[in-house]
Amino acid sequence: MKRRDFIKNTSLTGLGFAVGNTLVNCDEDITEAQKTQNHKAIRDLYGIPLVVATWHVENATAKAMAVLHAGGSALDAVEQGCRVEEANAKGQTVGKGGLPDRDGNVTLDASIMDKDGNCGSVVYLQNITHAVSVARKVMEDTPHVMLAGEGAKQFALSKGFKPENLLTEASKIAWEQWKVKAQYKPIINIENHDTIGMLAIDKNGDISGACTTSGLAYKMGGRVGDSPIIGSGLFIDNDIGGCVATGLGEEVVKTVGSFLVVELMRQGKTPQQACEEAIHRIVNKPNSNYKNFQVGYVAVNKKGETGCYAIHQYFSITKYQADKNEQIQSEFYNRT
Ligand code: SD4
């Protein structure tokens, strides 16, 4: 069967996204130029490549898309995109400038996962700005998935990362003000900007994701959230899609949130339906005190469809797809 007949006889929706595999196998009797053109047409139809991230991070998604347009992989894109926010000292939730724990220490959590299901993460990392890149090194250069604390830092130093003081003057002042009352209460949305979770699909249709955070402001020393825990803050299955989470990590961990969203998509739910169902799992738990905390998910499937949902208003995502890099307000559960 010729490729054009194959396409004519097969609904693209039913096919799913198949640039890399199924369609290529039918390409034998067409020229390379036609092949390239056909692949581009299919990608354009699905709005691929694409980048989607938690919160309002247009500079980060722009960087990730630039990597994809230059032919880079989804893995390179999410790493480079997250690094933009890690280096932004004005952002008080990620990397340099992140708000410290209650003892004044800035401790970072980050994770990364690729199209082959490889993953790496760092937890409780101090004095290294680009936690996401250290997570990638853990994935690529060690036999392990997760490195913590001093071990993670020593590993980073051995890989050439430079030690830095991550506590900026602004974050130090905020911490000193917090200490006056020292009340610990999760903040529902910090300045429309929080943990950065990013998902990308590259021109081959392959998916990767990453997540990076300074965790909850004024957390207990040693506390680790969902972001570096594969399946909770981040999960990718290249056959199905990916998901990242933001918000109160404890609640995400208890429901293995990102894995749940991907599994729901595997069962046939759209990314939007899957994110909604995962939020419902949290709010419908017996004695859930969801009114006091935020959780938000963003997901993408293999076809390049995206979805997001949160417990409370003001969660937003940034989506860069089909030449549009835009902030989108998420739908939310709590209407009271
Ligand atoms: C955590 N999920 O450490 C992260 C932090 C976050 O809104 O997203 N805060 O629990």
Folded structure, characterized:
Helix 5 (58-69) runs antiparallel to helix 6 and helix 11 crosses helix 12. This protein has helices at 3-9, 12-15, 22-25, 32-46, 58-69, 74-87, 131-141, 149-158, 169-181, 249-254, 257-266, 271-283, and strands spanning 50-54, 108-113, 119-125, 146-148, 196-201, 207-213, 234-237, 241-247, 295-301, 306-310, 316-321, 324-329, 331-332. The protein is an alpha+beta fold. The site of N-hydroxy-L-asparagine has 12 residues, from strand 8.
Task: Summarize this structure as a short list of keywords or feature phrases.
336 residues, alpha+beta, Glutamine Phosphoribosylpyrophosphate, subunit 1, domain 1, 2 domains, 8-stranded mixed beta sheet, 5-stranded mixed beta sheet, 12 helices, 13 strands, globular, binds N-hydroxy-L-asparagine
Summarize this entry quickly.
This protein is of the alpha+beta class and 336 residues long.
Topology:
Elements: H1 3-9, H2 12-15, H3 22-25, H4 32-46, E1 50-54, H5 58-69, H6 74-87, E2 108-113, E3 119-125, H7 131-141, E4 146-148, H8 149-158, H9 169-181, E5 196-201, E6 207-213, E7 234-237, E8 241-247, H10 249-254, H11 257-266, H12 271-283, E9 295-301, E10 306-310, E11 316-321, E12 324-329, E13 331-332
Parallel strand pairs: 3-4, 10-13
Antiparallel strand pairs: 1-5, 1-11, 2-3, 2-6, 5-6, 7-8, 8-9, 9-10, 11-12
Helix pairs in contact: 5-6, 6-7, 11-12
The chain binds N-hydroxy-L-asparagine.
Poorly predicted tracts of residues = 1-26
Give the SSE string: HHHHEHHEEHEHHEEEEHHHEEEEE
The average pLDDT value, as a whole number, equals 89
- Rg result: 20 Å
Q: What small molecules does this complex bind? A: N-hydroxy-L-asparagine
Supply the CATH class of the largest domain: Alpha Beta
Largest sheet, spatial ordering of strands: 4-3-2-6-5-1-11-12
Number of domains: 2
| CATH architecture verdict of the largest domain | 4-Layer Sandwich
How is the main sheet built?
A: 8 strands, mixed
Q: What is the name of the CATH superfamily of the largest domain?
A: (Glycosyl)asparaginase
Helix content: 25-40%
Overall geometric form: globular
The termini sit apart by 58 Å
| CATH T-level topology of the largest domain | Glutamine Phosphoribosylpyrophosphate, subunit 1, domain 1
Strand composition percent: 15-25%
Q: How many helix segments?
A: 12
Which structural category do the helix and sheet elements fall into? alpha+beta
Count of DSSP strands: 13
